[in-house]
Amino acid sequence: MIGERLHRARKASGLSLRALADEVGVSQTTISKYEKGASMPSSAQVLKLAKVLGVKSEFFFRPVKVQLKGVEYRKRSTAPKKLLAQIEADVLNQAERWTSLLSLYPQQPVPEFSLPAGLPELISELDDIEDVVDHVRDTWDLGLGAVPDMIDVLESMGVLVIVTSIDVQGRLDGLAASVNGTPVIVVSEQWPGDRQRFTLAHELGHLILHGRLDESVNEEKACDRFAGAFLLPRKSVQQHLGDRRSRIEPRELYMLKHEFGISMMGAMMRAAQLGIISDAVKSSLFRFFSAKGWRTREPGDAYPAETTYLYRQLVYKALAEDYIGESKAAELMGMSTYSLREERKMGGMDAAAADQ
Asked: Nearest Cα to 243, choosing from 277, 284, 282?
């Protein structure tokens, strides 16, 4: 038990065997034996390990309850194995806290994910995905406007969204997996909101489209099309840009970005996919974006990043309903009991409200 948890905590911290050994004051071989279960650390060593790895000593003695299954990355070619292992360890730790929290409730407080009824059995063309997206949005009562919060939509449908603080250094585009049968999508808190939202919609595309695509249809391209259409539906594109354009002002794409939470490049691609602009106009815009350096960093303010509130809301709900006490609530949120008590007092919020 200790060995597997020590291995996970070390991976999450990004430390090598030697680096952790140096921090704790033992040999690399000793740490390796701890992780393999060939030797047990003393109480004093457990405390040192916990301090170095930023966990409570109790962490090492909890039974392992969750496993990531079906892990799939949308990653750049430069993502090193060490970074991927660090991300997976962080996701496992967060998923385990989720599982522990949900087990405290007498009835499940979140729905089980299920596919919308009425999806086509076979999708043979990328253009067919437009109808699939319209059907999903209609079934989920999303209408045709902007989705204000992608994380909230996915969580309300039973998808577990984990926002990792691991520094992905621009080398990871997303991670999808399942935990105890629940689909999991992982995004970085360091990304701008439009990138987070596209990744979330892309991974939702995998859940919706998997097993429905003709062998001639590339699944990654299909999920990209799904993501763009989900964030910026065709009728909305047509309402804002018209049915046919010979030219588009970059400012129009910028306004679409901040209304719908999709990148300027993504909005431009939607116009091309729907035949609003020709391939020649699209190529011209690509060259313009490249010349301006906008393919790396788009102009103006970044679209605000999203975050998840559901986990903390459920911790406070469990606290209010007396399913747990302060100590357990603090443990679930990774804070001290004192910090939790200060947070519960909401100190300073009255004064802040008065200033507004």
From this structure: 277
Amino acid at 336: S
CA dist 63 and 1 (Å) reads 7
Q: 65-68, long-range: CB within 8 Å, 24+ apart, which pairs?
A: 65/96, 65/99, 65/100, 66/92, 66/95, 66/96, 66/99, 66/179, 66/180, 67/92, 67/179, 68/92, 68/95, 68/177, 68/178, 68/179, 68/184
Q: Are 279 and 272 in contact (CB under 8 A)?
A: yes
Report helix, strand or coil for 147: coil
Helix (H) or strand (E) holding 351: helix 349-355
- Residue 186 DSSP SS3: strand
Residues 6+ apart with CB under 8 A from 13: 20, 52, 53, 54, 86
HSE (side-chain half, CA atoms, 13 Å) at 141: 2
Domains of the chain, first to last:
1-64 (1.10.260.40), 126-292 (no CATH)
Asked if 192 and 303 touch (Cβ cutoff 8 Å), the reply is yes
Global pTM value: 0.82
Q: Residue 51 has what pLDDT?
A: 87
Q: Residue 317 and residue 346: Cα distance in Å, rounded?
A: 16
pLDDT one-digit tens code per residue, 271-307: 999 999 999 999 999 999 999 999 989 999 999 999 9
